[in-house]
Amino acid sequence: MNAIPEYNSKWKWMIIGLVLAFLYIPILLLMIYSFNESRLVTVWSGFSTKWYGELLRDELLMKGFKTSLIIGVFSASAAVVLGTISAFIMQRFTSFRGETGFAFMITAPLVMPDVITGLSLLLLFISLGQFFDLFAQRGMLTIWIAHVTFCTAYVTVVVSSRLQELDNSIEEAAQDLGAAPVKVFFLITLPMIAPALVAGWLLAFTLSLDDLVISSFVSGPSSTTLPIAVFSSVRLGLSPKINALATIMVLIVSFAAFLGWWLMSRADKRRRQEIRASIT
Question: pTM value?
Answer without folding.
Answer: 0.82
